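Sanity check

After download, print the first record. It should look like this:
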Amino acid sequence: MSRFACIFVVCLALAVLLFAIPAACTAGTGRTEVIVDDAGRRIVVTQSFQRIISLYGAHTENLFALGAAKHLIGVSPNESFPAQARNKPVYAYHDDLEKFLAARPDLVLIRPMIDRGYAALVHRLERHGIIVVSLQPGTLDEMFAYWRTLGRLTGKVAEADAMVQRFTQSAARIAQHTAAIAHKRRVYFEAIHDRMRTFAPGSMPIFALETAGGINVASDAVPRRDTTIADFGKERILARAAQIDVYLAQVGPMNRPTRAIIKNETGFGLIRAVREDQVFFIDEQLVARPTPRLLAGICRIGRILYPHVFDDPAVVQECPATEDMAAWVSPLPEG
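Expected structure tokens:
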């Protein structure tokens, strides 16, 4: 096993132990805890919230995975996973305050983008006594802490622990298999094509790439402000054209490239991956959302890079079908 793989496996093992104790963002004794969200709000939790509106698809997906879907009384528009989420009433951050008040939520889950862009709605909700919590992790450790915070908000603490443990164990076992690959493929991972941006080292997409056995050719990319996106630029991409074995691009609202767009980009004919038709795409929900489907993203990338490795039954069993991940935590006994 390579030095990187050893370090990675040890870190994941430590993560299981670390997140088996209360996360750093919570404190308290007995039934009362204090949760601090991404905006610095301090929320005193004395009992689980029962009527939740989620205005971010990742929150919705994670609540389903934790078994807390019954507490969801509303979700954001364009929900796509799990399919059952589409049966929930829809709420948007540009809706009138009265629509929210009529639903009588005790918690509205948002993310920092909504906090910044729709501050008036957030403040009005809070003035009417509705708790608002803003969360959006960017790194793997932050994702684990975020899952545990959702568990505390919904009374699903044991389920959140199980979700962290199951994810870390599966990812570690996949990493052990990919560590044995002799000739690893070098990948440029595109985040936003028209601005020539990639993902920052340490971000969830890069974690997925490296766990799948890929080598990030943009490992020196510097993140933009407090984001997981990094400027890279065409000049730097082309300077490494001969090193890029695979050109991988996320597809989603932020980035809608096609093979033709990439192949016809001025200068991109110099890129080895483009010349050899090694251009691939992956749904951003599998690599950029802080949900258990990040494991599916690892497996999807792995099948692109090393199909022979990811066809191994020992690896396949760590790669559940995405539709199975809507209720990813095994039922726990009562008591």
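If your output differs, re-run the checksum step. Summary of this record's structure: The longest helix spans residues 157-179.
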